[in-house]
Amino acid sequence: MGMMCHMFFVIFDRKICSRRNNLHNRASTEIRHAFEYIVAIRMSFDKGKKFVIKHVFENVKSLTSDEFANGTVEKHFDAFWKIRLFKHKNGDITPSLFCDSFETGHWSISTTCDVLVNGKPFKTGLKFEFGENSTNLNYWYIFKKDFHKYRIKDSARVEFHVKIDKMKTSDPSFSVHVVNNSENIIQKYGNSTAVILNTSLQNYKVSYLTEIIPNPETDLSFHFGFPTDGVKIQNTFFENPIDLPYYEYNGVIYNYTRQFFKTVEPIQIKLDYWYLTATGPVSMKIGGQFVPNYNYTTAASATTGLIMNNDNDMFQ
């Protein structure tokens, strides 16, 4: 017989939420569409973001050969940009645009650029994708014999008119996990989100969470569906800590108390996809298995957990 004293239970009928969360019987194509949507909302489609960066390079003819002269670094749309001018041994020059990002890991910025030299168009409609392995746009020469076309004498004013078509960065606070073999989920950052995709749609396949290590300073919540971009909806089905209401005799809530459970039982979630949010560090292990055991022995007298069984009920 399991220890049940001081255990907090809330019983949900999943059928109540079927209008919004009828996820159990969706085909694998729906999973793919959900994944594509998740990727899309993490991708900033920044059409319309534009900026102009310019720099005047003095004494062009006196620049050291085979070296870059660097303009001032400017920050635009969370990336750092500067114009560079390379002088070749034969006197030709190559203007270029350098981009660096504060992001670690994979990042990319797709751009369309126009280049002006001393106010005269030099290149237009250049398509280039900056990234961790391609930080410099410099595909062309201004030949020394053509300096007069761009009024290059002692100085050259180089301008890049940049339109950002798309930005994509690795966000350490956001992750996607496909339920397969057992793996650890470790959320190190505050206000992080992890999306769980269960692509094994056979009967009784679930997300099974164990070794959950809660943090009293971290609000941990599980949610139906997938994250929305800045839109708040009521889709939470598990949380720790939890705000317990106190009621007046007439049923009106007059206060709440915050209840943190140091012990969290293994959690079983029968959803094709769902996501968790955490305001601080938390860790757990997740795998794909179904445990049809309704006679449950808890690990502590004050504990919480969740079981979503095959009858479409949820118990926390």
Automatic annotation (TrEMBL):
Q: What does UniProt list as this organism's lineage?
A: Eukaryota, Metazoa, Ecdysozoa, Nematoda, Chromadorea
Q: Which Pfam families match?
A: Glycoprotein, MATH
Q: Which domain of life is it from?
A: Eukaryota
State the name under which the record lists this protein.
Answer: MATH domain-containing protein
- MATH domain residues: 57-164
